[in-house]
Fold these 4 entries.
Entry 1:
Amino acid sequence: MIDKKGLKSMLIFFSIIILLLIFSNQLNFLPYNIRSVILILFILIFVFYESTRPIKDLKDINRVYQRKSLFSKKKALETLKEGLKLENLNYNERLLLHIKIAVEYYNMKDYANAYKSFKKVVEEILKNDNLKIEEKFLIKLIGTYILNDKKEEAKKIYYRLLSLGRCEKSKLVEDMIKS
């Protein structure tokens, strides 16, 4: 899936650079430093444009989240939470954001907040009939419950998800809830 907005922005950016390179001969009357400043100025304008572009849908949330996650996990998490406030997201997109928030808390080793987020996700998954959980996510979910001393609750959730066919049987998860 191609992000058309991002592609359009990149095409505009590269067009400006190509135009500057083509017309650099006409700018020979300017010192080299000023030509460099002009090029840097156009790059900064583009970066500013990209950073202030409004968040309208899930693609925009993912774009901003990926950019912010390179520098700060907390800011990336804030972006995901802001994304939940968008009114035009459908049920699956909201659930995806809740999952990303839970996993982000888990990766930050903030297991108390991860537990709360995973709890919301489990409630939503149990409501929806056609969702299946991957083993990687299930391991994080059950692990978070265990780390928050909710082992019995983790067992109940795992066996309920199994009985409803929402996840595959996992030896690793079963070992986690047995020990």
Entry 2:
Amino acid sequence: MIVIVTGMPGSGKSRIVEEFEKRGFPSVSLGDIVREETVKRGLELTKENVAKVSIRLRQELGQNAVAKLAVGKVRVLLEKSPLVVIDGVRSLDEVGTFRGAFPEEKIIIVAVHTPPRLRFERLKARGRHDDPQTWEDFEERDWKELRFGIGGVIAMADHMLINDGSKEEYEKKVKTLVEKIIRGLNRGGA
């Protein structure tokens, strides 16, 4: 089984990934693949360089470029684990790449929605090198994500978590959903 986790930056995707990892299931981050590719190209890990490489990869290899680069990693992990989580899928082309590469696997899409103002505050607090520090940067990043096609992936989600309350409320939602998916794995569904 493959669980694709999607959502806008700062929505809470990583918390879902962490919950699966706590339970022994591995993950592949498409964002990490772009960051690795940025370094491979001899560029410093800056917000601008990562964004440029992300766009350049799609120009060179198609809209599903990052997914293509991830397929090998996912394949290796599926040999060792019955469930692999893929974090950061941003287009239906990427979903299609995974469906095509793994036709025998059940693929579940989990989307997280968090209101923009709340995401902005969380991203500012997170402090990762590529996180926006101004509302204008935040909006620009959101539009970039939407141009990649993330809205289509969110619309096609099998499960949607709304992350607009307390951390404790979201934790409960995440644990409940992860348990449901794992139960489905054990029964052949979800």
Entry 3:
Amino acid sequence: MAAKIKKGDTVIMIAGKDKGTKGEVLKVIPDESRVVVRGVNMVKRHQKPSQTDPGGLKSFEAPVHVSNVAIADPRDGKAVRVGFKIDQHGRKTRFAKRSGESIDV
């Protein structure tokens, strides 16, 4: 199955504690159906000091399930479903189903 969400996409959280938050996809984990989104699902972990790092509390983004995110429509920024179509060059591209706008540039 083709990937509907890719690294670099702007997505909106549609469920969870960060619902309504927009962010950029930093990493896609297809085996677990999860994505890492910038500034979303922040967690803190204790880091032991090392020779290069002083340690302490570190914050980073934890993965969220793909069902909790939706691609932002390129036209108005609202959550939208994704469809696929073949363009004039024979490439499979993604488009926003509500506006018909192409997601792939």
Entry 4:
Amino acid sequence: MKKKSIKDKEQENNWEEKVVQVKRVTKVVKGGKKLSFRAILIVGNEKGEIGVGIGKASDVIGAVKKGVTDAKKHIINVPLTKSYSIPHPIEGISGAAKVILRPSAIGSGVIAGGSTRTVLELAGVKNILAKQLRSSNTLNNARAVLNALSQLRTFQNTAQNRDINIERLFNM
């Protein structure tokens, strides 16, 4: 079976891209200051696949393009429940940022702020409660959410890890 390239994956899924932040950054060099742009992008298909990427270039368009390719390289799968929530509460950490994610009732919507909200919406999560702690850094908060979502486990995963069937897992 042939390996799927990034272009094949791109055609299969309808990826939605959102630019979370574009910053003007400078680097001091011998001749003065060199100006460039840093773009933070989130790419998702609202079906449980999500990625966060960064792009740096001398112009904004180039930074966004690099950010999209970087985000598509770092895509993770998110297990969603039937109510488009997460299976269990979880915490994620990236740098100084800490994010707490909790499943919520049907119809409650995405209760989150900043880049956390964008990541969760593009992942396809529709009912969740999230809280950002310790840091307001956009990139670290987005990565903390990605860290938390990558740690999520379903009942099937837990049963396989323990080498028992799902019925026994519920009866414990």
